[in-house]
Amino acid sequence: MNLIPRITVDVVDDDPTPQVGAAGVVGILGNFEQANSTTIYDAPTERDAKILLGRDKAYSGTECIEQLFKKTSISSGVERIVAYQLGERTGAKTILKSVASEDPITEPPEEPGNESTEENNGPKDLIELEASGGNWGKNLKVTVTDASFKPDTYKIIITLNDELLISFNNITLISFITRLNNSKVNITARSLVDEDDFKLEKVVDQEFSGGTESNDFTIQDIITALDNLKEEKFNLLVFSEEIDVDFYPAIEEALTNKFKNDKPTNTLLSLPESDNVQEAVAIMNNTPSGNISFNYQRYNELGIHASTARIAGFVAGLNVNISPGNKVIDDIYRVTPELSPDEMEMLLDAGAMVLKMKDRQANSYKIVNAFTATQRRDKKGEKIVTSSLYAKRKQNYIIDFFDLEDWLGRTDIDHNVTTAKGEIKSREKILLDKKIVKDITTTVTWVDGYLKIFFDAVISKEVGEIKKLIRIKAE
Known about the structure:
Elements: E1 2-9, E2 25-30, E3 40-43, H1 46-53, H2 60-68, E4 80-85, E5 89-97, H3 117-120, E6 125-131, E7 140-146, E8 154-160, E9 163-171, H4 173-181, E10 187-191, E11 203-207, E12 209-213, H5 219-228, E13 236-239, H6 248-260, E14 266-270, H7 277-285, E15 292-295, E16 298-299, H8 304-316, E17 335-336, H9 341-350, E18 352-359, E19 364-369, H10 389-401, H11 405-408, H12 417-433, E20 439-447, E21 450-459
Parallel strand pairs: 1-21, 2-4, 2-13, 13-14, 14-15, 15-18
Antiparallel strand pairs: 3-4, 5-6, 5-12, 6-10, 7-8, 7-11, 8-9, 16-17, 18-19, 20-21
């Protein structure tokens, strides 16, 4: 299906009641302790994310994960994350061998030059254990002993940094492979033989070796990652690593392609750490994108990338009926740098999210407003309506809402233009009832074997600032 969105705004007073409209899935590209390159990880909780990707805070992805899942009084944090490891990775490995056979081989070699009897009776490679990508696997060790009972079974213990990671008792070789692969310890087991009647050699603290990782990410790493994620659905994208400003056009191109493919995503990029506002504005002006917003400030003791993740988690946890503008983030008590009104205006106009002090006694900070970096203007010289992150989130939500993949998968109905129009009308009603839109008109046509949906939506006008004029008259 091809969705052609057009958003307009009327000036009807908004209904302040929060409504359903979750858009809380965040994609994160970066560097993690225990992650394979080219693998897409999906985690619905912080705990699941750390099980899949590791807990070591020496890796930028770990701290960003913690910030994404944080909740406040008005934001539920991210619904889930879709994570991807940048660059190349290999995993550390070790081989479990068989016990050497005690029975001599009586069959003669078929041809002269075949392996000797001693070599044929030697230990065989039985099981390969491989950790997920990165250096962490070098700290793994495996111990194999006889089981406490049951013949032909084993007790197998795997440790990480000399602490127990996982253990199996009274287990056969086949069951060990299956259960390890079904566990969540980021180690896979692979049988290297067809037979299953070999006996495992006993080992104590046998080490894993190998395992590589790189912290120098190239533009090709970014392009490859975004290409592999082009079919994935997430509402906001962040990076846990420094992204060279020269890479921004490639990110914009990938996001544009996702939008055309009905998988719209906005990204929140970290600007290079600097106290020079004009330099930051120049960078944003060189990336005029309706899909990209920027973060310039650092919060509390966090670095710039974890700060960006904090803001992304807060925004993702708001339903689409709630604008991020003028909202307090409860756990932020320090903002660096604090900005003058003129600096705020410059950054906001260029596409940065900006925080400022709201209540000095309470030491609380609020988001001033949030815009994308588009430079498109209306006839009055103001940014177009979808430059607001509030409007952009609603637009993308509507596109996702009219994705009829779930409807196409149903087996209890005929799939034709008539039933499709009926389904779309029912979804229109939901959007109206939930006040996600104030008005919506859809047109459905059949073009070259697929449905083409054009929708025209009216959303509530966002109020970002209130100015007062008071006249006093004495009588």
